[in-house]
Predict the structure of Probable nicotinate-nucleotide adenylyltransferase.
Amino acid sequence: MARGLEEWLAPRRDGRPLQLGVLGGTFDPIHIGHLVAAEAARTHFRLDRVLFVPAGRPPHKDPAAVSDAEHRYRMTVLATAGNPYFYTTRLELDREGPSYTIDTLRQLSAMAGPEATVYFIAGADSVVTLPSWRGGLGLLDACQLIVVTRPGLPGEALQRFLDSLPAARRARVHLLPIPEIGISSTDLRERVAAGRSIRYLVPAAVEDYVHKYGLYRPRGAGAGSERAGEAAALRRAGTSGAPEGAGEAAGAPGAGPGSAAGAAGGGAGRA
Ligand SMILES: Nc1ncnc2c1ncn2[C@@H]1O[C@H](COP(=O)(O)OP(=O)(O)OP(=O)(O)O)[C@@H](O)[C@H]1O
Ligand SMILES: O=C(O)c1ccc[n+]([C@@H]2O[C@H](COP(=O)([O-])O)[C@@H](O)[C@H]2O)c1
């Protein structure tokens, strides 16, 4: 277990119970929809910190269609670096097997301690598939669930899901309307493949990273043809070649103890 995450999950200095947000995703690539969702959840529910968890092996996706986890992790570190309340963990990259969310939530709860409340943040499109996840609705015993709105999902699908829940579990689900950001990682991959701009749809550092490593370009198109080799080199480099940012590989524990964010968190964080 990376020491950075343990430090980042340390209790608040004022003894009040920690309110921890967790946003899991494939993040292939991370985009402003993810960041807006996390920030909206943080401010609305007065979360002390939000942890971004790139899925090492997304359980429901074809591995051949997903970029190397190391690239997705590094882009997430870059994207979250500017927010002192955000942090990116490689927990699911370093765990063997499919990245089941229930395992992650149990692991985080054990690390954060019994006083902490864990809020899993997810888009409405993802939440309606929850019954098919590992552990099914049992996930709602391991966390509070913040459901952020997402353009494109018919309202009835979410309502049907909510209506299907027993009252005790329904009480743990919180709807949060957020500014509608009508983009997805799929759109962004398609844009890059077609040579179209992704500027302003992802943080500038992520845009630079995508182009530097030739991600999402058709095979044989310049740097894109080097993808497998680059990813292998990144893995060999381990944590030493990580980008600067709020993530374990960067060795900069973001809003953890002693950081600028720890101090800034006087109101919202580690007072
Ligand atoms: N634009 C958005 N608005 C609100 N929530 C979003 C948005 N994009 C992604 N999410 C949510 O963020 C989480 C992680 O999403 P993910 O990394 O799969 O991105 P995605 O854009 O849905 O990717 P893809 O198009 O590859 O399926 C999910 O809970 C998803 O519902
Ligand atoms: O645990 C599961 O069975 C499970 C099934 C589908 C999705 N998830 C998680 O849900 C989060 C969002 O998934 P996705 O596909 O929208 O990136 C991400 O953290 C996934 O690992 C988890």
Observations:
- The longest strand covers residues 19-25.
- The radius of gyration is 18 Å.
